[in-house]
């Protein structure tokens, strides 16, 4: 029982780490429209901004949504195994219901709060994952490699053909509308958010996201099937080998493009290959670190945040909504990178403190409680037993 509890703490801690990385990246998208419509140089002009953007690009950008997807795959398979023991043939039905509940939460988040929601996409990918969940390790790895390789190759060729357009892309009209509406009333914000959400969730974009994220779900399942997640010490030689392999691929495909001047047509290689392997590197290095009892203080800080991952993810959006948009403090487009990183430190620190305090009284976060209650069709006990 003790080993299982340690394993859960380790996965929760990695999930908490992923939420920190997601906050770093998302705050840039909340602050200005450059991710959607170009013109990043006009928002961040100092040498310090440029250096920090490179730092974020290498270590954070496109690394943490894949990491969260990998963790999602780990969680789905562990839940599938437990449900199979309890309800056997109903396991997949419960998982499907779980994905539909997540889809509803993600849809509400994306439409009413922030167009950059990832939960709806995860729910779609989760449904596809359930279809593949019983396939053997070799088959899952073939599916993952084929999807990630094909979409990366296709998009890189397309981006290379359009490299001159992409290098100078800047939609002035959309940028102006973003500033006009995100700094206005909630009705203004809602109108602009819907427009951006429809861009983010157009059919082509959804297909590309699925082909990028589903491989990481499958890798998460593979890691559980191989026993690396449940008993990392037994597989330490293989894990250490893959830590080095993923680190090398991380450096080549994530750092390499910056040494070439960071041409925009290499973005999909940076994100698809570099981002996926950097996320796997982060997962494996932290799994080994926590499993061997190192970094226990860091684990104790990160694990509560990770255990309340759904609530903390949505809370990050709600805080940013108030901080950056016109209904609140209206800092949209007004800050530099140092200011934004200070914001990240403050928000995440508050989440750490609140998560530790909250879990002393309750066993689930408020959104986790809703998620579980609707999944199982039975009101879950929220408070811890005395």
From TrEMBL:
It comes from Alkalibacillus haloalkaliphilus. Residues 223-378 form the DUF418 domain. The keyword Ribosomal protein does not apply. It holds the Pfam family DUF418. The chain crosses the membrane at residues 12-31, 51-80, 100-131, 143-162, 206-230, 242-260, 272-293, 313-333, 340-359. InterPro entries: Bact_Transport_Assoc (IPR052529), DUF418 (IPR007349). This is DUF418 domain-containing protein. It comes from the Bacteria. Keywords: Membrane, Transmembrane, Transmembrane helix.
